[in-house]
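Mods, move this if it's the wrong board.
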Amino acid sequence: MALVLALPGCAVGPDFHTPAAPETNLTREPLPAATEAAGGVAQRFNPGADIAGDWWALYRSPQLNALIGTALANNPSLDAAQATLLQAEETLRSDQGLLLPTVSGTFNAERNQASSAVTAAFSQGGGDTKLRPYTLYNASLSVSYALDIWGEARRTIEGQAAQAEYQRDELEAAYLTLTANIVTSAVSVASLHAQIDATNQVIASEQQLLGILQKQVSLGGVAQAQVLQQQAQLAQAVATLPPLQSQLAQAQNQLAAYTGTFPGDFQPQDFTLDSLQLPADLPVSLPSALVAQRPDIRAAAAQLHTATANVGVADAQMLPQITLSGQIGHQGVDTAMLFTPQTLLWSLAAGVTQPLFEGGQLAAQRKAAIAAMRASAGQYKNTVITAFQNVADVLAALQYDGTEQQAADDAASAADASLKVTQAQYQLGGQPFTAVLSAQTTYQNAVLAQAKARATRLADTAALYQAVGGGWWHRQDVTQSCCGVIP
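Not the wrong board. Structure tokens:
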């Protein structure tokens, strides 16, 4: 008995340990304290800084906040992820019953008629051997318990708990991806509005220049070839407008899908670059924190945990299984006397089952479980490496984004100054009007490049928040998992 009570304390198979965070730096070169102060804003890198759960609020856009709120409430992908998590949690609760005995109650009423011929054959003195029909009542309680000596049930529960944690992390990843995608799409909408405005102004300048050249041709001032060249340049400028308009419509439709709305029912948000404020402080998570924060890394660790537990299940299935069972009840022909000591019956049983020949199935299943565990370990390592690459890429992009925007700002300032000088010279008769229009086109193209650079900086900032985990552990809109949150 002491041995039986002691054995359930052990469980065969490998015990899972969360892999240690890699001892490495996020980037090859040390990060600067801040990016270039492009547009008057320098983004500061803050190593080890915490991340707000609603990080998108740092863009200071009420429209963006409202849009994300609607998406979090209505997005069908989130509904599916939440339902999948609930399924995994309920399956875990079901598996936890493996550690408890099963109890069932039974009540039977059976009407019988014994054979008179059989009774007469065994009777000694003859006489009336006919038996009357009778009813047999049976009320019993059965208990069965499989001793979890080798930990098969506990490994099964452990694996399902890890699977529930995996679904939890998948839900967090869905939240993070959705919010980041909405921010990126809003930035794209704002950028496309700016590009369309700048393109329309370029087209207007090109059309005005074409009109002047056509008048000059009629007066014999310029050759027809210049008009044809300008017509080609105008056509090229006009051809750039429809793709931008198409991209804008598609971006608006994508925002509709994110909010769980059909495109025909969606009210587009006219985001502008000026309506989105660039966050000035950028969190840079330490490697150990990054591993604990990113939902995809946590999900990969949960899958590795499940695969490790499955090895223990396969090991236990190859060992002897002990089952205890018992039954107690009453049996009688009269319900009034059914629960008396004379009608009591009971039984106790113990059984041991040892697989002897399974055609190699159990051994193959164990090898398959070990292979699955090794595959999960490789997938986990690959996920960590990809995550670190993702963060390094975004940090590098943010540094160069500031330089790019500063160059675009300088180019726009220079083009603006050139336009003003050309306009002043034209007023004094020192430049033809065509030079003014050319300077206007140069300026509008510089404004177009400036808008793209601003949008890239805004989008890459959102990519950084997504890359470091998005601060999901501070949100209150989802119940935290059984394993707690990041301290």
